[in-house]
Amino acid sequence: MLNNQGRPTSAGNAEAKEHKTFTGNRALAMEEGLIFETGRYDVTGVDLDEPEAFTPRLGGQERKAPLGLPGLSEPEAMRHYVRLSQKNYAIDSGLYPLGSCTMKHNPRLNESMARLPGFSDVHPLQPQSTVQGALELIEELARWLMVLTGTEAVSMSPKAGAHGEACGMMAIKAAIAAKGEAATRRTVLVPESAHGTNPATAALIGFEVQAVPAGADGNVHPDAVKALLGPHVAAIMLTNPNTCGLFEKDIIEIAEAIHAAGAYFYCDGANFNAIVGKARPGDLGVDAMHINLHKTFSTPHGGGGPGAGPVVLSQRLAPYAPVPFIRRDGDALRMVEHTTEATTSFGRMTAFHGQMGMFVRALAYMLSHGADGLRQASEDAVLNANYVRARLADLMSLPFGNRPCMHEALFDDEWLKGSGVTTLDFAKAMIDEGYHPMTMYFPLVVHGAMLIEPTESESLASLELFIMTLRDLAFSVRRGETERFSGAPYHAPRRRLDETKAARNPVLKWTKPLPIEV
Ligand SMILES: Cc1ncc(COP(=O)(O)O)c(C=O)c1O
Hints:
The protein is of the alpha/beta class and 518 residues long. Helix content is 33%, strand content 9%.
């Protein structure tokens, strides 16, 4: 079989699927066990002097046997970690079309700036007079964020998008309490298409969540919101552009209705990368919005951290922002750390002022792009997503019609109906083709959703190859070649896992008995 570039491929080749190697390695891709399986407990990779004899002072409680840590020589340790690193799929390895996650290239310039010793070596407990440059950088980044969003204040300390949501909702809660309405305004409206973190955040902060039904066109409709408004509503949490990849065209009318009802407008800004330099959330009536620096401003996704999710705030919410924040005193910058000074602040969310490394990267990205470059990045992200949409629209189904999208193109599984192939099968077959799958089954308002976000980082050539691959797969579906999908991935080091079992019954701990006395 030849691929679309005329190169031989083993897709569909039964022999390649069945062939097992003695080592478990495939071509030059190595199998790698856990370090506990490969290491030996009686060796160490370094030569240490025998410890001098000493009299233990632990009253018999001291350890009598080795710790049971696996020992490897230096080359074995190197190989272990290099092989593990090669198992990572990353934006540095290839296109990563994970919708809503904005897996785009992180320019290496950002990395080298973050490694400047003046930034990388600062300690959060250093006297403030010795970190004036770092405070200046945070101030400068904060200024860019406020200018780009058209807002009055920004809290830099939240560590991720969801943490930012908590920050914004706590500011809203404090503002409501200040008006003496804490007992009555207890409901937060969340559209059905929202990211799961939105209702989770609202509930965590102590609100009741009421769903706003999705419109048939993928947008939230003012009438649906107005029907739910009343003196019990504290806020709406609305994503714009939304998780269907569409701009909320009635956002101003919704914001006005929310404000007229005495409530606040929290905007999930995870998709801000689609509108930077084109629209300012503050102008749309937003009171609070988190910005995922790791999406829009190209800092690395942290795999759990460290991240940064600054929250911009309107004038109405600014007084309730958390401590610490930076204030200029004459020529010097200082951190306001306590609520004794910031008396209306809702308090403190984190030990320190945020993630310095991310701040440096984000500002480096902004300064190297400039305002025009940031706008261009948004435009290119939207252009690329629309290119994908337009080139696949004849084969794959679009739940809200073939109309322009923002930074991500959303398909559903209508086109797979009756084929015996599911969204999951299709995604697994993409892995065989060397592509990380798109976001699947999210947003929930769309059946069998496939959310593709190519980002602005991809060239036309890379987009074309991706599109041709998806077209090839789609034609396979049409031809009824279900085997290509049902057993996929055939070529990955691990085949299809029992995902339900993995989620319900995760094995998170190495349990083999170790040769140690307890
Ligand atoms: C729409 C949306 N909202 C919120 C979040 C939460 O952001 P974070 O993962 O930084 O906590 C995400 C993350 O993917 C998202 O896509």
